[in-house]
Amino acid sequence: MGLLNIIRRMALREKLPLREIARRTGMSRNTIKKYLNSGMIEPLFATPERQSKLDPFAEKLAGWLKTEAGKSRKQRLTLKQMHADLVVLGFDGSYNRVAAFARDWRADRQRDQQTTGRGTFVPLLFRPGEAFQFDWSEDFAVLGGERTKLQVAHIKLSHSRAFLVRAYLLQTHEMLFDAHWHGFRVFGGVPERGIYDNMRTAVDRVGRGKDRQVNMRFLAMANHYLFEAAFCNPAAGWEKGQVEKNVQDARHRLWQLMPSFPDLAALNDWLEQRCVALWTEIPHAALPGSVADVWVAEQAALMPLPPAFDGFVELSKRVSPTCLISFERNRYSVPASFANRPVSLRVYPDRLVVAAEGQILCEHTRVIQRSHQLPPRTIYDWHHYLAVLQRKPGALRNGAPFAEFPPAFKQLQDLMLRKPGGDREMVDILALVLHHDEQAVLVAVEMALAEGVATKTHVLNLLHRLIDGKAIGAPDIDTPQALALRREPKANVERYDGLRARTAGGRHAS
């Protein structure tokens, strides 16, 4: 490089003849002429093409390396084994030649993955109110003192970048519907389009290109909130890159110090407040101001929030002879009048509703047990078995549903079952809740127990006086002397003879 610089200066700046340049540099005039005529400013040295003994086997060796790269580390063939296999095929070169080829192949592969292999992308721009993106992730929190695995829903506005994170125990349809409602509620409206990956709760079948067979319940939710559902190509998470990044950012913003709360509802309240607070702290990536500032401007472009979608999943169940239905390994009681009959079970995120013949039969708090090591649970409502008790009062003594009586009923039951016929009387008292307010019946039972007169008649008397508004437990009335009788009546049964006929031979008046 330095010699070429000297030659060019002598010829072009100092205008020396070739003979003088050759004398001073010791180079031949032909070489100097070649450099000056080529106009090069940097000498290039061509590497001659040399034949290698490995060339006829290069394609096969590259195929082997690609195959082995897809295997686990412990199952891959070593380069020595590959060299031995090539020798069997006729290769007579050294192991070092094979190792050098493998090094070059791995370097080219790594370079491809870091450049063109990573793909080329176009930055996206969304107008206000145009779209939101949705995704799920898995994280952990301490709920009720126990480390719990959570399914976390992320929903994010594409223009303002406002986001909401909400935690659930399962990743099912009813959880998906609930996450959308809370997201739209916090955002203050509904965008025009939702961008999703091909999750099973939204897509039943992925077709060619953009063809999707959308789940009917998911489509019903989209029709209710009036937004268009758009689905990414398979394994193309960058098409909803904003919410994908939100999943990563949430891990160090929300989950890095594992939060601890008494239950899931308290955790979700904290998550909502924390997300809204972060809007004011995070600057918008493309517009001036914070995420909260851009969200305030975007709200005008959102569709007003409609009523919440009735996001349940309906299942057909048959009630057992013991008045129970099964769901997720647990059993729930149903009114006895529907035993051995089909009913409809509506599954919500936090409750189960049983319906039949166009009416709601009962409702239970949903019990979700993630661990299969725990035994299944049975959730009873003793009211559902009152019709059976009236026919079978003996079941009151050891009936499993009646172990959950209120304390007053439990105390009265202990007293009643000690006397003959007490089970029938207890059933009659329990049946009062079918016609009167249960709290009033409980108050009447507590008063009867306090007075030490635990009988059906006394409970009925107290209950009716409560319902009629009459005073109970008033002091005894002191009768004034003015009302004293002047002539006490005498016990005389002869006056009943007046009812007999006066004439002889008459009959008795009856």
Task: Compose a concise summary of this entry.
This protein is α/β, with parallel strands linked by helices.
Output the structural class.
alpha/beta
Mean pLDDT, rounded to whole units?
87
Main sheet summary: 6 strands, mixed
Residues in helix, %:
25-40%
Which stretches of 5+ consecutive residues score pLDDT under 50?
none
How would you summarize the topology of this molecule?
Blueprint (H helix, E strand, L loop, with lengths): L1 H12 L4 H8 L3 H10 L19 H12 L9 H10 L6 H20 L16 E13 L2 E12 L5 E6 L4 H15 L5 E4 L6 E4 L5 E3 L1 H10 L2 E4 L9 H15 L4 E2 L2 H18 L9 H8 L14 E6 L5 E4 L2 E4 L8 E6 L3 E6 L2 E7 L12 E2 L6 H6 L15 H10 L5 H9 L7 H14 L4 H13 L42
Parallel strand pairs: 1-4, 1-8, 4-7, 11-15
Antiparallel strand pairs: 1-2, 2-3, 5-6, 9-12, 10-11, 12-13, 13-14
Write structural notes for this entry:
InterPro entries: HTH_IS21_transposase_type, Integrase_cat-core, IstA-like_C. Residues 3-65 form the HTH IS21-type domain. Helix content is 37%, strand content 16%. It has 16 helices and 15 strands. The protein has helices at 2-13, 18-25, 29-38, 58-69, 79-88, 95-114, 173-187, 216-225, 241-255, 264-281, 291-298, 386-391, 407-416, 422-430, 438-451, 456-468, and strands at residues 131-143, 146-157, 163-168, 193-196, 203-206, 212-214, 228-231, 260-261, 313-318, 324-327, 330-333, 342-347, 351-356, 359-365, 378-379. Strands 1, 2, 3, 4, 7 and 8 form a six-stranded mixed β-sheet that branches. It has a four-stranded antiparallel β-sheet with strand order 9-12-13-14, with no helix packed on it. Strand 1 and strand 2 (146-157) form a beta hairpin. Helix 13 crosses helix 15 (438-451). The longest helix is centred in the first third of the chain and has 20 residues, at 95-114. The model has no long low-confidence stretch (mean pLDDT 87).
